[in-house]
UniProtKB/TrEMBL annotation:
Keywords: Repeat, WD repeat. InterPro entries: DCA10, WD40/YVTN_repeat-like_dom_sf, WD40_repeat_CS, WD40_repeat_dom_sf, WD40_rpt. Residues 305-326 have a biased composition (Acidic residues). It comes from the Eukaryota. This is WD_REPEATS_REGION domain-containing protein. Belongs to the WD repeat DCAF10 family. The keyword Isomerase does not apply. Residues 305-335 are annotated as: Disordered. SMART domains: WD40. GO terms for cellular component: Cul4-RING E3 ubiquitin ligase complex.
Amino acid sequence: CAYLRNRELGMKPKLGSTDRFMKGLYTSFLPCTYWDHNESLQNAAPGGIFNLEFSPDGSLLVAACEKRSILMFDPLSRQLLNTVDNAHFDCVNCVRFLDSRVFATCSDDSTVALWDARNLKTRIRTLHGHSNWVKNIEFSQSDGLLVTSGFDGSIYTWDINSYTESGFLYNRVFHTNGLMRTRLNPDASKMIICTTGGYLILIHNLDLRTLAQDLEGFKPNMYRLMQLSQTTIPVAANFTHLFSKKRKKNRIEFLTDFPDGDDAEVVSSLQVHPQGWCALSRNISNDENSEWTCVHDIQDLDIDSSSQEDEGNSEQSAGEESDAESEQSTVSSTEMASMVIGLNSRARVLSSAEAVGGRVPRRVLRRQNAFRGFRAQVVPDRGELTVTSTDVWEALVAIREARARRDRRPEAPALESRLRIVRMQSGIEAVRAWHADSDIVLADGSVSSGLNSNPDESRSNSTHTTGRSFYIISRPPHRLVKMFILLSRFVTRTFKVMPKNHKIHQNTPRLTHFIEESNVGKGFIKELCFSADGRLICSPFGYGVRLLSFSPTCSELSSCVPEHGRPARLHEIGTNVSHSDIVVSTKFSPRHCLLVSGCLTGRIVWHQPVL
């Protein structure tokens, strides 16, 4: 090969020759060898291969298995070196090497275990702290901290070098409902979090030591709800300063843009480019009829100083109003709009006719093995946000408290937009219980409040006012909550304009590449991966794997950025079908031109170039 000959002689490669060589190498990937427990009768069936991980030097390969076991291989000889049949009390979800010998595993038994590859007879330590399935492990070399996250919505850091009599020192640094995966970029300067709400959270200039204090009280789902509704929620708007470009550490950014046709709901899989340039994610749409792989840029953006000053202006509490900054304004409109929010569904805006035209059709999908136990309830054909009842109720209480403070002011001007609870229903159409602490809005828009209120009494004592109403349904055992926020604006009204520091942060489009995936194996997380040089993406594709690149010539991402900021489709380099069941995990070797994949029946396949 002329390329190799020139390389041996130390000659500078011609422009484009490296891309052509890498394309020839990657397009020749074929399945070479496989391991199957059926051919090794001395080993118990491992079940599905949920995760695959190489040691940093590429000398070891460890598989996390569904049936509580971990498998260790020599990736070059393809020989099984060791097996731990009862590594955990439930399925093992993730493996992460801390160095060439020590690695950590996490499980649905809510624990994290530390192992020494030289002696797998016993664990080094067991880490207790999570209250639900632990799904992810990261390691920050600079801080010496282990970072774990799980379906309890919490992210913990563990100082594994500071062991005490009571165990390791650990801290909960962040919490959000609907958390799925957490990743660190290679130098641990950024943290990326994917959620069940159809968006990603990016934390710039990460400082794990102060993260808990810097983000204390911040609720991403509530802030995202405020962005979608474009309605100021004081308790959420108080954290707009976290998005300011002036922040020196732990700055927040939301990644919310997805390709046309992808109404992302659950973003289940997440990886970071080897150079830290972008985040690779896989999501399922809210109607569950399509899956997508998306690439988002996560590098720092160059923002002019004027926009920085504009965004860094929100340090005042959102629960308080500044009379000096307030001004009178009038608006005339007869429009009506609505927002629907489900407990595990998402927020969406309805038209006027839809809002007042009776009940909104919904489809509740029941899945026995939804994300290995993660149940979701969705609304089809809508762009919506997952919000939990906790976040919604906290927003509701905060707004009502702020309204009460304004009402106590004798000089307060005309009413602002208001929130009213219409009624609560538990699986029946008739309303039989009216809560004393709730304001009741009738169908004609009248408002009544007070102790022991009922529809008949409130109709006679009603006054018309601009307001928002909530229609709440609780339907055990699914506890599906529907809220209709009826935004009614009638004849000309005078209201206060919120001060400038209460404004809502607008997200920046970050999507660069995308492709639609096969929609099979619903309920299982499919782990994608980057090649060591970042040119290639491997994605589980049915009973095989699909190799994707940023350009037809397998160029690096830095040389094929989409023009005019328009997202581009990923290019398919090849597809290999070599499994007998759904592929759920893939991994490239960090040192060798080698790819491994694992499926639900426990088969592991090695892929290499065949020239």
